[in-house]
């Protein structure tokens, strides 16, 4: 069994070989080096952004589940037209402005149970590495200066267009490929370094004052952290051209070695079938959805469970279905916790757990097919429920199933989801006891009142043969 990933660069499904040299065992590979384009911190990130960030999280979690070590960087773009404009408008420094949104972004990641990565470089702290790239390109005669800005000359880099299939010949005069309004010799060229405008922050460099173009930021941070070719670069499909194409051009032209082995691109997210836009009223930040009462766990589930190369249609119906799916998982956990009797180990249960992990791995190994993996998981949930119905599980078997759930949750991150609002368990249990007493005394009005009270706190009460139990609503 080997992990296969669709590489945007070759347009083929390829066996994943970190470092480019096959090894006998997974643990012999060097840590997988990953770079993910991060947010531009000028505002709240929207759920389309979070689809990509949840995918990045799943990717690193799955690699670790498969036994790889990971060394992952996700940058913070903290200087560009929007951040500069935002800071000017609020009358604060660029750093103060971007610190605010960087903090909010990391809070949102935590809310969605996205693991911290090893490196979070900021563009403004990587200027030295940008200067190094530009100096290398200058030595090779691949750049030119115009009106104080520095441009990369695409015509001189013959491999341009391999990633996106957009060749420099296809790029038409007059079209806008880059969000900058600076003059250049050829419209296809892109700015490496931008001349300072009034009121804008700038850095002093050997080639004059100014600020970085967007594309060079990522190339510089990759170089500064990893020093050489990296294994995986991820981003949304909208970044393939021109952003990633330009990253390849400047990095490979500067250092004469491949930039990235595997390019992974995440498809768009639609909301209720349409492209998200403020004018359509279907534009949502994470906080918008939380304000509507949806739980972070449900949102994570929905964002995670579609294949990354397929568009994800995010709907409120889908959120409700996600909550139902999570309820099935919680029910299984509650049933496992209810099993109190000791019994000899039932090998059938352990075998089913092993078979599940094998089937899950085989499915997800095929181009990170998490949608298929979720299907395999719910087959497993169904089978374990059937075995519990038949009384086939004793306490040791329940423990084995629980271990399996914990193992698989290192990939999912939605089974044992950290509680966002701490729940006072004693208070809940006291209320349940009071409710049971009320029911015994046939005071159904009070019993119902307590059930509703708990539901308002996000607690669902279930009356089962084994007694009353409670689960947290997703
Ligand atoms: Zn980038």
Note the topology:
Elements: E1 4-7, E2 12-15, E3 32-36, H1 47-65, E4 70-74, H2 81-90, H3 94-111, H4 127-139, E5 143-146, E6 149-152, E7 190-194, E8 211-212, H5 214-226, E9 230-236, H6 240-255, E10 260-266, E11 269-271, E12 274-275, H7 286-291, H8 296-304, E13 312-314, H9 316-338, H10 347-365, H11 370-389, H12 395-412, H13 425-440, H14 444-456, E14 459-464, E15 467-472
Helix pairs in contact: 1-12, 2-3, 4-5, 4-6, 5-6, 8-9, 9-11, 10-11, 10-12, 13-14
Bound molecules: zinc ion.
Could you provide a short overview of the structure?
The protein contains 14 helices and 15 strands. The protein has 474 residues and is α/β, with parallel strands linked by helices. The strands form 5 sheets. The protein has a 4-stranded parallel sheet with strand order 4-3-9-10. It has a 4-stranded antiparallel sheet with strand order 5-6-7-8.
Description:
With 474 residues, this protein is an alpha/beta fold. It has three domains: 272 residues, Rossmann fold, CATH 3.40.50.620; 85 residues; 48 residues, no CATH class. 45% of the residues lie in helices and 14% in strands. The chain contains 14 helices and 15 strands. It has a four-stranded parallel beta sheet with strand order 4-3-9-10. β3, α1 and β4 form a beta-alpha-beta unit. α4 crosses α6. It is globular, with a radius of gyration of 26 Å. 36% of the residues are buried. The mean pLDDT is 93. The site of zinc ion has 3 residues, from loops.
Keywords, separated by commas or semicolons:
474 residues; alpha/beta; Rossmann fold; four-stranded antiparallel sheet; binds zinc ion
């Amino acid at each position: 069994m080997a992990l296969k990933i669709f590489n945007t660069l070759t347009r083929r499904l390829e066996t994943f070989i970190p470092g480019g040299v096959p090894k006998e065992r997974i643990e012999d590979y060097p840590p997988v080096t990953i770079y993910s384009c991060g947010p531009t911190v000028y505002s709240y990130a929207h759920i389309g952004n979070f689809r990509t960030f949840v995918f990045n999280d799943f990717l690193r979690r799955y690699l670790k589940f498969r036994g790889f070590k990971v060394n992952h960087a996700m940058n913070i773009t903290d200087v560009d037209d929007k951040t500069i404009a935002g800071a000017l408008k609020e009358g604060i420094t660029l750093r103060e402005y971007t610190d605010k949104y960087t903090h909010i972004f990391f809070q949102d990641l935590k809310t969605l149970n996205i693991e911290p990565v090893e490196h979070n470089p900021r563009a403004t702290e990587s200027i030295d590495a940008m200067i190094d790239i530009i100096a290398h390109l200058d030595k090779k005669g691949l750049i030119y200066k115009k009106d104080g800005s520095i441009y990369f000359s695409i015509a001189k880099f013959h491999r341009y267009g391999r990633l996106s299939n957009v060749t420099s010949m296809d790029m038409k005069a007059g079209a806008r490929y880059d969000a900058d309004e600076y003059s250049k010799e050829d419209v296809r060229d892109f700015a490496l370094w931008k001349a300072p405008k009034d009121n804008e922050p700038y850095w002093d460099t050997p080639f004059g004052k100014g600020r970085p173009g967007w594309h060079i930021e990522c190339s510089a941070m990759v170089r500064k952290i990893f020093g050489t070719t990296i294994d995986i670069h991820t981003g949304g499909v909208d970044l393939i051209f021109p952003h990633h194409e330009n990253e390849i051009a400047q990095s490979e032209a500067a250092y004469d070695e491949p930039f990235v082995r595997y390019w992974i691109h995440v498809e768009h997210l639609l909301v209720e079938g349409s492209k998200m836009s403020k004018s359509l009223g279907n534009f949502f930040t994470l906080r918008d959805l939380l304000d509507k009462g949806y739980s972070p766990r449900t949102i994570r589930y929905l964002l995670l469970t579609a294949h990354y190369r397929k568009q994800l249609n995010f709907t409120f119906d889908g959120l409700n279905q996600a909550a139902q799916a999570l309820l099935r998982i919680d029910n299984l956990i509650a049933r496992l916790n209810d099993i109190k009797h000791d019994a000899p180990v039932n090998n059938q249960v352990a075998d089913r757990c092993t078979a599940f992990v094998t089937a899950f791995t085989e499915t997800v190994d095929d181009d990170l097919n998490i949608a298929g993996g979720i299907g395999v998981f719910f087959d497993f949930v169904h089978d374990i429920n059937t075995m519990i119905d038949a009384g086939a599980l004793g306490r040791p078997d329940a423990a084995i199933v629980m271990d399996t759930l914990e193992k698989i949750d290192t990939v999912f991150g939605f089974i044992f989801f950290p509680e966002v609002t701490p729940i006072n368990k004693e208070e809940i249990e006291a209320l349940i006891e009071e409710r049971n007493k009320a029911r015994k005394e046939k005071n159904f009005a009070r019993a119902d009142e307590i059930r509703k009270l708990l539901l308002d706190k996000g607690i669902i009460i279930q009356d089962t043969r084994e007694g009353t139990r409670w689960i947290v609503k997703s």
